[in-house]
Amino acid sequence: MEETTKKKKMTEIGSAIEELSVLSIAKTTIVTTETESTNIINLPLKPLLSFCRLIIQVLDKIGPTMAVLRQDVDQNIQRLEKMWESDPILYSNLVEILRKEAKEGSSRKPKSCSRAALWLTRAMDFTLALLQRLVKDMSQNMEQAVEESYNLTIKPWHGWISSAAFKVALKLVPNNNTFINVLSAKDESHQMVEDDISSLISLLIPLLSQLHSILESYEVHKLKST
């Protein structure tokens, strides 16, 4: 029982590292024909969505403050999964979905998969910003770390209603020790947690760099909430 509990607690950071090891950076394949060579970026969709589900688990640890963002992440995962289910081979690559909507002129529509990918990326931006603040100072005020991370990554794209709701819920953020403890395995020191978070950060940075580059190439990177 104790071993099972430990494994369960390990999965939140450990599983995230495992998923990002697959996704550490999108691969570019050069396809050559008689007339031209084309660079095709391959960003596997299913491992990306699996990692985003782990983000939901992290957001749950922060508490009700993240309820709106958590729901948004969940809905966007479902939207992309529905597209994947329509053709698992073709849409195994996120870029193919973005390319399809760009050709159809539907990328900017409120329920587009392009918007879903964009908001999942912003949720990852928030997660990265928060983890970086924690690693820099594991004893810092958690409420301040969450607010600063939100202001940097999500607030510029949120409407005033969502921003106001976040401000109210911010008071419900757990203290630093509580948050670190729920991310830890039993008997795991804060230093060990810090090392795991640092490993996760090192994998998340190149992935987000690639995602932002892809979204910008399809001109959806500056879309705001509807």
UniProtKB/TrEMBL annotation:
<comment type="similarity">
    <text>Belongs to the GLTP family.</text>
</comment>
<dbReference type="InterPro" id="IPR036497">
    <property type="entry name" value="GLTP_sf"/>
</dbReference>
<dbReference type="GO" id="GO:1902388">
    <property type="term" value="F:ceramide 1-phosphate transfer activity"/>
</dbReference>
<dbReference type="Pfam" id="PF08718">
    <property type="entry name" value="GLTP"/>
</dbReference>
<dbReference type="GO" id="GO:1902387">
    <property type="term" value="F:ceramide 1-phosphate binding"/>
</dbReference>
<dbReference type="GO" id="GO:0016020">
    <property type="term" value="C:membrane"/>
</dbReference>
<dbReference type="GO" id="GO:0005829">
    <property type="term" value="C:cytosol"/>
</dbReference>
<keyword id="KW-0813">Transport</keyword>
<protein>
    <recommendedName>
        <fullName>Glycolipid transfer protein domain-containing protein</fullName>
    </recommendedName>
</protein>
<dbReference type="InterPro" id="IPR014830">
    <property type="entry name" value="Glycolipid_transfer_prot_dom"/>
</dbReference>
<feature type="domain" description="Glycolipid transfer protein">
    <location>
        <begin position="44"/>
        <end position="184"/>
    </location>
</feature>
<keyword id="KW-0445">Lipid transport</keyword>
